[in-house]
Structures are given as structure tokens and as C-alpha cells.
Amino acid sequence: MRALAGLGLAVLTCAAVLPGEAAAADAPARAERAKGGGLSAVVRYTEYGVPHIVAKDYANLGFGTGWAQAADQACVLAEGFVTLRGERSARFGPDAKPDGSLSSATTNLSSDLFFRGLNEAKTVDRILGSPAPAGPTQQAKELMRGWAAGYNAWLAQNRITDPACRGADWVAPVTTLDVARRGYAITILGGQGMAADGIAGAAQPGAAPRTAKAADPAEAARKAFGEQRKNAGMGSNAVAFAGSTAANGRGLLLGNPHYPWQGGRRFWQSQQTIPGELNVSGGSLLGMPVVEIGFNERIAWSHTVATGVPTNLYELKTVPGDAHAYLVDGKPERMTERTVTVPVRGKDGSTSRVTRSQWWTRYGPVVTSIDDLPLPWADGKAYALTDPNAESLRFTDASLALAKSRSVRGVQDALRRTQGLPWVNTIAADSGGHSLYTQAQVLPRVTDDLAGRCSTALGRQTFPAAGLAVLDGSRGDCALGRDADAVQPGIFGPSAMPALVDAPYAENSNDSPWLPNADRPLTGYPRIFGDVSTARSLRTRGAIEDVAAMAKRGGLTVADLERQQFANRAPAGDLAAADAAKACAALPGGRATGSDGKPVDVSAACGVLARWDRTVRTDSKGAVLFDRFWRRLVRSAPQAELWRVPFSPASPVTTPNTLNTASPAVGRALADAVAELRGAGIALDAPLGEHQFVERNGKRIPIAGGADALGIWNMIESAPWDSARGGYSEVRHGSSYIQAVGFDGGPCPAARTLLTYGQSSDPTSPHHADQTRLFSAGRMVTARFCEKDILSSPQLRVVRVSER
């Protein structure tokens, strides 16, 4: 930093204060800025707006990170803090829908009730004030404090250009507590945050809320803890290769998380450096002061959303005549009432207040639904949600410990020490040639024995199907207990976590821990972690086929990882396109009957399917037709009907297979797809990129990749098909912060990165779509990690940022 100052490169930033925003700072925020004592950092920007932040300690590093995140994402961050303060109904109306980044609440009112309830109970305040490991370490607290000060300093010194919040009175300074609340919300996304509607809006005796549909409980649980995560944009792929497969004998890692392209759960890229203490590069979730997925000179890691269910339910027996008391070992216990009041803006601009009661038990809050699983508070029963992550702020410390790790063993030690990952697996590789897969996440300590002894009738359906335990809350012996090596009661300790070390490859694509390597399956873990010997998703099957072939071939380099990322092979096409084309050609008169009962001439589709190259590149002809056909088919045909050869645990990568062309669903799906495309004036052999694209500043950018249903590594889930707008005209979630990392034994890792949607949500920013265009072209960015590479960037811009 002194050298940079001496060179005269540092620039002190200054700008006009945002209108009205300095006055909007509350007393805690003003005190915090004064207490900051003149925090500062140096931010060196290189190509594509990637900041390399250098500071002397954790508070100053947090300051530089908060400042730089605000510069790119002020509006998205500010709206998130409105959510956390429980002010969405007052600002945006009660009935609108939040972006889903901080909870699964379906309305602003439900979101406000949920977060105000947490705030008024001072849940995060209590954890933040607890000594580690119950609370965060001092380093984590300093990062949060600095982040808040940096965000506030940017707001005070700059004018917002993003039309999403330019001049908005809800853009306001924040405190350390606000930053901690954001990290807490991310931590409980798979638990209390997933049940926000059921906690906030319905916890009164009576029928289940309208948001919960009467459904088969096992299927509803599978949807809630499987499909719901995918729909919320929580997925990923990652693979670590051991040195035995690499050209230079060192580890390699390819991380490909699938996250939303809009809203508050975007990644943001940076390098964070405290000389002699920390040096890490990677992607951070917005509002987080640390890198969550990244690399340093010795280690690279990524995360994938795990199948472990981070919560469980207790079924309560309420006291006859008193639905607000329940029995434990025959003795009544009163529920605790939390009365929450939310200000609400009416359609006429007037303000009113809505008050609701939330009810809490020894097990957690009473809930009346989780997604489509109804949990009625009636007939002498109620349900309470246990979420061990609701007692944790350790995610920041876990990420910081990973950033400091120097080897796969160091990664394992970091996870064992912090026990702070809420809903993800970890895949890692190091410069010594070691590889790792582990599902080291915070899970309620529901052993198979406990579930066998204590599951209620509902739990006997949901636990085998989805890993969601519903235990008998009337029995004290059904408590979760404690593992000796666990940092908090009621969770599994590190020795219970599935792990695979030093396999030639270790891969995960959001399936259970059973098959990170086809030759080295993992078994023996409790059901709550995931299932065993069940059919894998097409994405897992395709990924294992690809990475196993790469490992067998050997001699791998970072360039091979980049080729895998953009291969865009469609495993569903390899399995079914040829058979679909043959079935099409065999149709009498070339006609099939659609779901509306009308015949459709599909003869032209037969050749298109046969000639399709089985990829989802932007120039692939036939990919649009197969995509529309396949989505319809898998929605309408049960798996047992879809394939002629059923799943076999002995051949999990290659079964099920062979399309069952005798199923009437095949002809219907083909007829509907052809009719749809013709009705929209879209050629059956139209290139994919003409109809899968995003618009940025009025220009179309074609997007490669494909849906989870197709099994694509480079997964892209777009907004629903809209023929009038030309097809898939916006990406909802998919490939996000991508990194391909290798090592050569020196201090500079060989890394290629890509942030698919760019650093900034602001359409006026030069970094709003620059990396999106790279993604469209199938290119990545050569990472600048070492000083010589950063300082030699032709686009180097150095800024000294400070509170004054």
C-alpha cells in the first residue's frame, strides 16, 4: 500500500452526498461511523471491473469490500436491507412479492412479519454478542463492522446512477447488526427462511393457510426439499481432480454454481488481501464480507447445494381446550407469544398497521406449512420447526477459515473447527495433488435410530422420501441429543460427515453423497444427509461420464476444465434424441396427436432431431425443438413409463436408459412442441441462440446452456417460454461465478474465472453485461492474483477509499 501511494497511483474519491440520505442515518449508524476511526483500503480494479482490495487488517478489509460492493450493487443491497428491516410493505406495498433472495416468503407482508419477528426478539443481536464459537470470532465481527462502514461511506460520497433506486428514500446507511442479519438470513434459507410464510402468517389454531395445498406428504416433502431449491436457484456443479490425473501432478478444480442472475443472491467477484495474513480471490454473495467460493495460491474450493435437510419438525400434542399449550412427558408447557406489528402502505398511499401473533416452543416456532406441505394446527396437533442454523452466525468464520487453508487437510480442519456451512457440500483441490468431497453442513442430529423410534405417522412418510424428520414432540426422549465433537447441541459432529479424499475425481451436482466418484460410492451416513442407491439426476450422470473420462485420459490442465464448462453436451439428447427421431419417422402419415386431441404433421421434425448435434451451443440447430419436446415429456410421463431399461444400483451412471417410444406421451409431447414452434413462426431447426437470450441495454445476447431436465453441466434456467417475445428471453438462474483453477507450485495459481452476469446490476455501468458477452462466446477471464499480474493490467485503476 505504501508503495502504491509512493507511485502516486492512489486516488482519493469524493462526490456529492446523496440527497436526503445523510439525514436519514439513524443514531447507531452515526455512532458506528464515528467509531470507525478513519477506516480505509486500496482498491485496484483490473479487467471487467474486478476489484483487488488491500488493507492492513480485517476492519479495513471489510471497509474496502463494503465500499466496492456498494459501487457495483447499491440498489440491490439497499433493497435487501429494506427486507431485513421488515419495511417492504411500507415501501412497496404488502401484496407484492420479494425477490426470494433472503427468504421464501411469498408476499412483502409475510416477509416483514418474519423478519420483524426475528429483529424484535433480538435473535441476531444475541448471537452476535456471544463469544465464539456460539457467536462469530472477532475477525468476523471486524469484517462486518468494516463492511457496514464501507457501504455507508460509498453512499455518502457518491450519487447512485442505477434507475432502480436513484433518489429513493429507502436507501439508507446500515450498521454491523444489519450486516450480521443479512448473513443470518442466508444461513437460515434452508430452514426458518424456507418456512417464512408458515411462521409469519398462519400460526393460529385452525386450518392450514391457502399457500399450502393438500398433497401427498411424501411428494410435498420431496418438492419442498428438492425441487424447491432448484426453483429458488440453489444448485451447482463442482469437480476436484487429484494430481494423478493432471499434467503436472497437482490438483485441479472446476466450480460451476447455479444461482440467480437477478436480485440479492447474486455473486460478486473480488480479491481480498491483508499482507502476511490473508490473500484470497473468488466470489462472494452480496452483502457478505468474505469470499464464499474461491482460491488462494495453494487451495481452490467450491460449494454445491447439499441434499441434507437442515431442519426437522416436532409434532406437538396440544393441551385439551388450550391450543397454546402442549404436552411433554405428560406435563403442559406454554407457548411463547411474539406479537409483531408491520406498517403497511395502502393503494391510496395511506399507512396502516397489521399485527400478527407468532408462537414459539422449546423446539422452535410453530409452523402451519412448508411450501406445499400443509401442517394444520388443529385436532389437538401443532407442528414446531427445529432449525439448528438459527443458532449460528458461523458461515462467515467458515468461509474465512477456508480462505486461509493451505491444503485439503487444512480445508477439512477448517470445516471441523468452524462447523458453519448451512446447506452446502464442499469440493476442493490443492497444489499438493489432493482432492476432496465432503458434506460438512449443519444438520439436526436426527439419526436413523432416532427417526425409527420417534417418527410420527407423518414422519414415516416424509423421512424415507425426503429426509424430513417429523418427531414426536410429546416425548422428552425424542430430543436431538449432542455429539461429543459438535460445537452446539442438537447437530451432527464432524466425524459423522461423509467425505471422499484423494479420489482421481470427486464430483457433485446436487445429488446425495452416495456417488461423488462412480468407483468409490459413499454409504453408511444417516438418511437426513441424503439417499443411497437411487437414480441420479441426468446432470449428475452426464457430469460423472464427462469427468470420469477426463480423469481416465489424464494429462489434464486448466484448459481442459474450461472446455468442459463450455462443452454444452446434452445427456438427455444422447439418451433419447435418436430414438425420438426414429419414433417420429415411424408415425403413420407423419402425424401425431397433441394434448388437445388435434393431429399435427411432425414429419419435418424427424430429420431435425436426427441431425441435431446433441449440444446446447448457441448455434445448435434442433436444440430448441428437443428442449421443448423433452420438457413436455418429462412433465407428463412418470419415470417408470419414460424408460424401457429401469434404474439399477449396479449401473447408476448408465441407467435408466432407452426411451420408451411406445408411451403415448412421446407422440403427444412431439406434436405439442412442433405445434408450439410453428404457431410462433419459429423454424424447427432454428439455432438455440436466436431463442435463448438476454437483453442488455436494448441488445440481445445469445445464451448457451440448458435446463436441469436436459442434464447440462452449463445449466441455464430461463424465464418461462414466451413465444411472443421470441422464446427464453431472460435467464432466471444458472451458471454464475465460474472458476477453473490449477497450480504450478509457485505463488500464482493458474486460474480462469467468469461472472456470467457481470459485476453490476446498474445498466449504466460498463460492467453490467461485459462478462455476459464473454459467457455467450464461451470465454473466461485469466485471473490476476499476483502483484506483478495486477499491476501489469492494461486497465488498472487504483482507488484509495476512506471514511473521510
TrEMBL record:
<keyword id="KW-0865">Zymogen</keyword>
<comment type="similarity">
    <text>Belongs to the peptidase S45 family.</text>
</comment>
<keyword id="KW-0378">Hydrolase</keyword>
<keyword id="KW-0732">Signal</keyword>
<dbReference type="InterPro" id="IPR029055">
    <property type="entry name" value="Ntn_hydrolases_N"/>
</dbReference>
<dbReference type="InterPro" id="IPR002692">
    <property type="entry name" value="S45"/>
</dbReference>
<feature type="signal peptide">
    <location>
        <begin position="1"/>
        <end position="24"/>
    </location>
</feature>
<protein>
    <submittedName>
        <fullName>Penicillin acylase family protein</fullName>
    </submittedName>
</protein>
<dbReference type="InterPro" id="IPR043146">
    <property type="entry name" value="Penicillin_amidase_N_B-knob"/>
</dbReference>
<dbReference type="Pfam" id="PF01804">
    <property type="entry name" value="Penicil_amidase"/>
</dbReference>
<dbReference type="InterPro" id="IPR043147">
    <property type="entry name" value="Penicillin_amidase_A-knob"/>
</dbReference>
<dbReference type="InterPro" id="IPR023343">
    <property type="entry name" value="Penicillin_amidase_dom1"/>
</dbReference>
